[in-house]
Sequence to fold (713 residues):
Amino acid sequence: METLPGPGATTAVAAVARSTRTQPRSPSQLLSDAVTRAGLWERLAERAQSCSGEPSVLLTPGVSTYGDATTAVNRPLVEELIDLLCDRGYRNIAVGGARCGPDIWLAGQGDPCHRLGYRERTPRGNPYRLVDLARDVIPVGFPASSVLHGSGMSRPWPEADFRVNIAKNSTHPEFGYALCLANLLGVLPQTDTHHHYRARRDGAEVVAAILDVCPPDFHIIDAVVSSHGCAGAQVGRPLETGTVVAAPDAVLADLAGALLMGVDPVSSSLTARVLQLRGLPTDYLVDGDLTPYQGWRNPPRFLMESIRRLHPDGRAHRLFSAASWRVEPGEAEVTDKALGRLSRGLTTLLRGADENPVALAMLCTTMGAAAAGSATVQAWRNGYAKERIRRREVSLAVDPRAYTDRDFDRITEILRPVEGIVDALPADAWRMRWQHVGHAILFGCERTVNAPYAEFVRRVDICRSISYMTDYLGGRVHVVSRDTHGRPTRQIERNIYLAQPNYLAFYGGPPIDVCKLETIAYGERSQRISWRTVHSPNRSAEYDDGSVTCTDVDQGRRTRIVIRVRQKFTLPLSWQVFRPETRPSVRDPLVRDSYRRFFTRSLDNFEAHYEGRPYRIGRPWDGCDDDQAAELPTQRLTDAVRLVRGATREALTAGRLHGTPGPDGYRHVAPGDVPSRFRLLEEVRETLRPAVSGFGTGLWEALGRDRNPRQPL
Fold:
């Protein structure tokens, strides 16, 4: 019989150790078996050889729990691992808890490791240190292409010689499951995880940045007693699963953990995105039984999709993130009564939804309504309140090392025939040219501005041309090469725009998210940037290629801006069913109008940038946002309730009118003697008046901009 070759030395092994009825095993046996088969000791020995002294080992178990230890990694299992390390001579061990919970909104919760019983010494007497991963933050060298560029991490993390990431086996109402990848969000220094690593930045890009720069060396999933149901990571629902998973790769460990739950690993938006950015190891093997856990319950798909439709930078998502954690009385206290009541109600509903169909229907209906409302508000802002939209902080989303000089040189070759067709098309009254070719749109426009060419190109940086386009939300630029004057000649750029046209947001249209290779040429009488699309992280575009050229006119007294593009964007599903390409009489006027509006405003933005006028949409993230993040999501609601209560109480308890009875039988009251029975209600009215009038003014201005598209935003 032919024998298959065993795994090589470089094979990444995900070991699954399980306890069964026929072969019961203790948690310590499961742990020892899993880490041995996954190669922990070989990797530790290899790392120790490169260390000058005793290697330091950092363990980062998940510790987010507020009274129900089911949602945290089992402390005895962590201390058992410490004993195993000490038995093999590794005694420089530290434990730093990974916190993903809403600590910032709680009072009296104390240090999570101490609350879980960590006492810096195992039952066998082996010592270890407790470290706080939110303190002593130092730079770790996240590159300019990283979403964490400029951020740091707690000193124990980068200075550890060997890092072990230990995650609890649990479900998650948004991701589907929360294992090793989700646990990495808790090792970052900011305690307000939602604000910094979900709202300001994409969580998957944050995790990928950690894995790229200073990744854990080993991963363990504690599935001895798991937490399942609609929200196992926040509301503990224990299930004895008698399993430990160990692997040297986070994605591989999560893949095995998801299969044990009986779900597709890429059903998690976090895992799917990290898998897209990094992929699995080149050579890997799953060693063990992957039969799904008996009695396991995963979150309903509708619930996950509803929560994913809540925008992470919005109040609804922030409110759900805070209120979905079960806080037991006496363990911690929510600092706001309204949030506390909401948390008790929501967590009770989450727990009841696992068994009660009525509770599940109520939960899904509530979250579905919240998702629909959030999507409607965001779509309305796309068209009429762009100043309210947050700008994006993103990574480059592509590996700069994957592209050669030849890839940049081909840009001109690809665009030359496209630009030839655009220049040959007839121009309309707006000096714009467009034509459908193979479901893509070829478009060109130009404008001559009364600005000296030399001064124009000095103020308007040609290499930043894409950021001058209208509805630009943000992006990231990575310069590949520069000329002798220090100017970029080759660069890679990621750009994000609002859905185009803006009204497609009401139909579920995604923002335009594209990554481009760009070349920049500088001449005495012209400057040009050319680009071609190489990747679209959200698959919103197949083509978004083009160029911007600035040339001198009238011996340099004026400047001409010429834009030529080839674009093919992905339509929302409802519009794909409509098949607009089969109805050119309807499609063409819509396309012509949307392109005229977009590029007229883009040309306006070039002029505005030259003149120093503001033109960018959206609100940037700044330092004050970190302070405002500490505000409870229910703070405004609480203030409003207090105001209404006070007004009602004053109205009901107001005394009788003062004054002096006159001989005519009437009470004569001076103006100063008349107390208002509704003073607080008048304050409410005066408080709301600016908001109502501001809404009307903003709507009128937005409609005015639609009527006059040449007016810059």
